[in-house]
Amino acid sequence: MRPLRMMNQTIEIPSLDALPAVAGQVRAAVQGHPIICFEGEMGAGKTTFIKALCRSLGVQEEVSSPTFSLINEYRTAQNEPIYHFDFYRLNTPQEAEDIGALEYFDSGYLCLIEWPSRIEALLPPDRLLITLSVTGPSARELRIKN
What we know:
By secondary structure, the chain is an alpha/beta fold. Helix content is 23%, strand content 27%. The chain is built from four helices and seven strands; from the N terminus they run βαβαββααβββ. The protein has helices at 19-29, 46-56, 93-98, 101-106, and strands at 8-13, 35-39, 71-75, 81-86, 110-114, 128-134, 140-145. The chain has a seven-stranded mixed beta sheet, with helices on one face. A hairpin with a 5-residue loop joins strand 3 (71-75) and strand 4 (81-86). The two termini are 15 Å apart.
Protein backbone atom coordinates (compact mmCIF):
# COMPACT_ATOMS: atom_id res chain seq x y z
CA MET A 1 0.00 0.00 0.00
CA ARG A 2 1.41 3.37 -0.95
CA PRO A 3 1.76 6.09 1.68
CA LEU A 4 -0.91 8.74 1.83
CA ARG A 5 -0.06 12.10 0.32
CA MET A 6 -1.47 14.92 2.37
CA MET A 7 -3.56 17.10 0.16
CA ASN A 8 -5.69 20.12 0.91
CA GLN A 9 -6.55 22.31 -2.02
CA THR A 10 -9.32 24.82 -2.73
CA ILE A 11 -10.29 25.84 -6.24
CA GLU A 12 -12.79 28.56 -7.11
CA ILE A 13 -15.16 27.79 -9.99
CA PRO A 14 -16.57 31.15 -11.12
CA SER A 15 -18.95 29.70 -13.75
CA LEU A 16 -19.81 26.62 -15.78
CA ASP A 17 -17.42 27.89 -18.46
CA ALA A 18 -14.53 27.24 -16.05
CA LEU A 19 -15.41 23.56 -15.53
CA PRO A 20 -13.11 22.09 -18.23
CA ALA A 21 -10.05 23.93 -16.88
CA VAL A 22 -10.88 23.07 -13.26
CA ALA A 23 -11.53 19.43 -14.22
CA GLY A 24 -8.04 19.33 -15.74
CA GLN A 25 -6.54 20.70 -12.51
CA VAL A 26 -8.45 18.17 -10.42
CA ARG A 27 -7.51 15.31 -12.78
CA ALA A 28 -3.84 16.10 -12.15
CA ALA A 29 -4.37 16.43 -8.39
CA VAL A 30 -6.21 13.11 -8.00
CA GLN A 31 -3.77 11.04 -10.06
CA GLY A 32 -3.11 7.77 -8.27
CA HIS A 33 -6.21 7.93 -6.07
CA PRO A 34 -8.77 5.39 -7.27
CA ILE A 35 -11.49 6.32 -4.75
CA ILE A 36 -12.82 9.87 -5.01
CA CYS A 37 -15.80 10.88 -2.89
CA PHE A 38 -18.00 13.86 -3.75
CA GLU A 39 -19.99 15.68 -1.09
CA GLY A 40 -22.15 18.76 -1.36
CA GLU A 41 -25.73 19.79 -0.91
CA MET A 42 -28.34 18.80 -3.46
CA GLY A 43 -27.77 20.99 -6.52
CA ALA A 44 -24.16 21.86 -5.64
CA GLY A 45 -22.96 20.40 -8.93
CA LYS A 46 -21.49 17.01 -8.03
CA THR A 47 -22.74 15.26 -11.17
CA THR A 48 -21.99 18.28 -13.35
CA PHE A 49 -18.42 18.32 -12.11
CA ILE A 50 -18.08 14.54 -12.56
CA LYS A 51 -19.20 15.00 -16.19
CA ALA A 52 -16.42 17.54 -16.74
CA LEU A 53 -13.86 15.32 -14.98
CA CYS A 54 -14.84 12.32 -17.11
CA ARG A 55 -14.56 14.42 -20.28
CA SER A 56 -11.04 15.42 -19.22
CA LEU A 57 -10.24 11.69 -18.91
CA GLY A 58 -11.41 11.06 -22.47
CA VAL A 59 -14.85 9.58 -21.77
CA GLN A 60 -16.87 9.83 -24.98
CA GLU A 61 -20.21 8.38 -23.91
CA GLU A 62 -22.85 10.34 -22.05
CA VAL A 63 -22.10 10.84 -18.36
CA SER A 64 -25.23 11.01 -16.24
CA SER A 65 -26.28 10.62 -12.65
CA PRO A 66 -26.74 7.00 -11.58
CA THR A 67 -29.45 8.06 -9.14
CA PHE A 68 -31.70 5.11 -9.98
CA SER A 69 -29.20 2.60 -11.34
CA LEU A 70 -26.78 3.34 -8.42
CA ILE A 71 -23.76 2.79 -10.69
CA ASN A 72 -22.75 3.80 -14.20
CA GLU A 73 -19.66 2.60 -16.00
CA TYR A 74 -17.75 4.72 -18.51
CA ARG A 75 -14.52 4.15 -20.45
CA THR A 76 -11.51 6.46 -20.53
CA ALA A 77 -9.54 7.25 -23.69
CA GLN A 78 -7.29 4.31 -22.67
CA ASN A 79 -10.39 2.05 -22.48
CA GLU A 80 -10.13 1.72 -18.68
CA PRO A 81 -13.36 1.67 -16.69
CA ILE A 82 -14.56 4.49 -14.48
CA TYR A 83 -17.28 3.60 -11.99
CA HIS A 84 -19.70 6.38 -11.01
CA PHE A 85 -21.85 5.74 -7.94
CA ASP A 86 -24.75 7.70 -6.48
CA PHE A 87 -25.69 6.41 -3.04
CA TYR A 88 -28.30 9.08 -2.24
CA ARG A 89 -31.18 6.60 -2.31
CA LEU A 90 -29.52 3.98 -0.07
CA ASN A 91 -30.70 3.50 3.48
CA THR A 92 -27.87 1.27 4.73
CA PRO A 93 -24.30 0.38 3.73
CA GLN A 94 -25.53 -3.22 3.31
CA GLU A 95 -27.41 -2.12 0.19
CA ALA A 96 -24.10 -0.99 -1.35
CA GLU A 97 -22.51 -4.31 -0.40
CA ASP A 98 -25.41 -6.11 -2.08
CA ILE A 99 -24.60 -4.47 -5.44
CA GLY A 100 -20.93 -5.44 -5.11
CA ALA A 101 -19.56 -1.99 -4.23
CA LEU A 102 -16.59 -3.45 -2.35
CA GLU A 103 -15.43 -5.34 -5.45
CA TYR A 104 -15.55 -2.10 -7.44
CA PHE A 105 -13.63 -0.25 -4.72
CA ASP A 106 -10.97 -3.01 -4.69
CA SER A 107 -10.65 -3.09 -8.49
CA GLY A 108 -7.99 -0.38 -8.62
CA TYR A 109 -10.04 1.49 -11.22
CA LEU A 110 -11.36 4.98 -10.67
CA CYS A 111 -14.49 5.08 -8.50
CA LEU A 112 -16.36 8.40 -8.33
CA ILE A 113 -18.79 8.31 -5.42
CA GLU A 114 -21.63 10.75 -4.82
CA TRP A 115 -23.14 10.79 -1.30
CA PRO A 116 -20.34 8.70 0.26
CA SER A 117 -21.55 9.48 3.80
CA ARG A 118 -24.36 6.96 3.19
CA ILE A 119 -21.78 4.14 3.01
CA GLU A 120 -18.96 5.58 5.14
CA ALA A 121 -18.29 2.26 6.89
CA LEU A 122 -17.44 0.58 3.57
CA LEU A 123 -15.01 3.16 2.25
CA PRO A 124 -11.28 2.46 2.30
CA PRO A 125 -9.14 4.92 4.29
CA ASP A 126 -7.07 5.84 1.22
CA ARG A 127 -9.55 8.07 -0.56
CA LEU A 128 -9.97 11.68 -1.55
CA LEU A 129 -12.90 13.85 -0.61
CA ILE A 130 -14.04 16.59 -2.96
CA THR A 131 -16.59 18.95 -1.46
CA LEU A 132 -18.53 21.33 -3.66
CA SER A 133 -20.11 24.40 -2.10
CA VAL A 134 -22.44 26.91 -3.73
CA THR A 135 -20.93 30.40 -3.61
CA GLY A 136 -23.12 32.16 -6.20
CA PRO A 137 -25.76 31.52 -8.88
CA SER A 138 -23.29 29.56 -11.02
CA ALA A 139 -20.15 29.83 -8.85
CA ARG A 140 -18.82 27.02 -6.71
CA GLU A 141 -15.93 26.32 -4.40
CA LEU A 142 -14.27 22.93 -4.74
CA ARG A 143 -12.18 21.57 -1.86
CA ILE A 144 -9.97 18.50 -2.20
CA LYS A 145 -8.75 16.73 0.91
CA ASN A 146 -7.56 13.34 2.05
